[in-house]
Amino acid sequence: MSDTSDSESLSGSDAELQEAFSKGLLKPGLNVIDDAPKVFVNDTQGLQDKLSEFKLKLPWIEVLDSINKPAPLAPELAAKILEQEEKQENLRKNNKKLPQISVEDDPVLNDFKRETMFYRQAQATVLSSIPKFKELNIPTKRPEDYFAEMAKSDEHMQKIRQNLMRKQVGQERSEKVKQLRAQRKEGKALQIQTKLKRQQEKKQMLDQVKKVRKGVGKDLEFLNNSKQKGKNVPNKKGQENRKWRDQKFGFGGKKRNSKSNTKESSADLGDYGKAGKNRNNMKGSKGKTQRPGKNRRNKIRNRRK
Amino acid sequence: MKKTKRKIVADDAVVSEEPPAKKPTKWTNRQRVLVFCSRGMNYRYRHLMEDLKTLMPHHRAEPKMERSKTLTVVNDMCEIKNCSKALMFEGRRKRDLYVWMSNVPNGPSVKFAVDNIHTMAELKLTGNCLRGSRPLLSFDISFSQSPHYMLLKELFVQIFGVPNKHPKSQPFFDHVYTFTILDDRIWFRNFQILSEDGALSEIGPRFVLNPVKIFGGSFGGPALWENPKYVSPSKYRRQIRLAAKKDKYVDKKHQKLYAEATKPEITYKLNPLDDIFKKNSETKPLLKRIKST
User: Fold this and answer.
1) pTM above 0.90, yes or no
2) Residue B267 lies in a domain
3) Alpha helices in A215-304 (DSSP H)
4) Where would I find the Brix domain in this sequence (chain B) (predicted)?
5) Distance from CA of A179 to the nearest CA of B (A)
């Protein structure tokens, strides 16, 4: 063993290793030296000494610190938290790509819950500190006519206000659109309902007609009833209008090639080339029957007698 | 409007309320904080520092420190500037931010890693407060429970608290700082007091301090406490990257094994007699056999 090159560097611990191996602590194979676990310093005594060394011994008004529990949850805040949770759940339901873990109870991951916790803590401090100021007769509120520089500039506050307004407007608009959509949906549902109803009525009537035909029922009153109920009579003006339009543009029948020539139309020369005497009578001869001559009329009269 | 660039006292009556001779006698807690940063900081972190400066009228500014200098130089800088506290921002890789807080000649000093930074310029933070008004300091209950948190609390009070009757401060109370311990970190928030019955709105900035180490001296000295749960941001990123890589390799291997295990024996239902009449088909000997029998 001592001949190998790497044993030189380890010669100090060689004997120890051999001993360990003989006891069965070492197993054949690659052995790795294990690092001792890192020890994290936590010098409690030192911390306390240091704290007492540099701690300020001053009245409260000089330092304004306070340690407190968060203020009780206001009911409207609780309602808001519930609302948020519902929203989150809906989001998760609708988008399967999001991680499907509920973070509602974890204040580290649930932003809203965490921020409300901080808010409540600040609230508790305000509620406990204001009476102390009152006791010491120190004004807390800035009078209306006290002007001083603020932490955020005017322009910045203007920007914030505009942003808020924009958000509000956007929300209103989206709500309006939502409402419209809902209305449209309702209208559609109503339409379908009426359509179904009409179909049903019609079917009922047809059934009854069938029954009458077969001779089972003889009551025909339902026809009148259904007509009165079901048939919506179009207004007179509309009807006339329709008639006129049908007359002008035609209704039904073949519309293709209606203007192209046919055998008849090409043969028909109209009044062209007819004798002058007949030309005037052309229309009349078609429409009216001519009165017979005097002789004929007499003959007819004699026959009747 | 209410706010103007320079401090303007509108009413003479307000001035006359406070006689000038009274002020210096009452200014007992004379803390001054040196606020500065090292070179190579991100713009976002610089904005955070500027925000803190606007909120702390008792700060002293200092140009950026060269990174080559050792941290103990800060003690001398503070002495020159007559400061008893130091708040030093240290950026690494333009990505990570560390903050040193120190009580200058004698310590202690603390190093924090800072995450989740939102500056005061963000539009969702709607509150506003007087520049230099004194904040109420609100601490979580757990700040009174373990010695290192107690020490941190005292340090925060001395650094962030605006001294009473400081000449640049305002005499009214319109904002609260909260320090809350959650997830072994310290979360900082700044709220405006809208009304005295507890209506608040947030001003900003927001940040989370992750304590790394507490030292006995100022920028040095023996370590008093170390955070066992602290993982440096770059190490954390590396872990994530490596974890992704390892998974990639293992996934690949798994896929290969799975593919082999589930490989179908018959890919397609072929009729062995289909290519009976093809010249080079293997079924020809069979045909011969059939003919011969």
Assistant:
1) no
2) no
3) 221-230, 236-249, 263-267, 276-287, 294-304
4) 31-220
5) 28
Q: Mark yes or no for CB contact A118/B187 under 8 Å.
A: yes
For residue B44, the tally of other CB atoms under 10 A from its CB is 14
Torsions phi, psi for B218 (to 5 deg) = -90, 115
**Chain A: nearest CA to B47, how far in angstroms?**
13
Give the pairing type, strands B220-226 and B136-139. unpaired
Q: What is the ipTM of this complex?
A: 0.76
Contacts of A63 in chain B (CB under 8 A): 29, 137, 157-158, 161
**A:B CB pairs within 8 Å:** 203
Q: From the CB of residue A184, how many other CB atoms can be counted at a distance below 10 Å?
A: 10
Full residue range of the structural domain in which residue B145 is found = 33-227
- Sign of the Cα torsion A233, A234, A235, A240 reads negative
> pLDDT per residue over A226-246, tens digit each?
555 545 666 788 889 988 988
Residues in chain B: 293
CB B172 within 8 A of CB A140: yes
How many domains does chain B contain in total?
1
Residue B149 sits in a domain of what CATH number? 3.40.50.10480
Residues 6+ apart with CB under 8 A from B147: A44, A47, A48, A51
How far B205 CA sits from the closest chain A CA (Å)?
Answer: 11
* A124: closest chain B residue by CA: B198
Q: How far lies B257's CA from each of A305, B58, B244, B247, in Å? A: 123, 67, 20, 15
Instruction: Give me the count of residues in chain A.
Output: 305
Q: Residue B163: is its pLDDT beyond 90?
A: yes
Inside any domain, residue B2: no
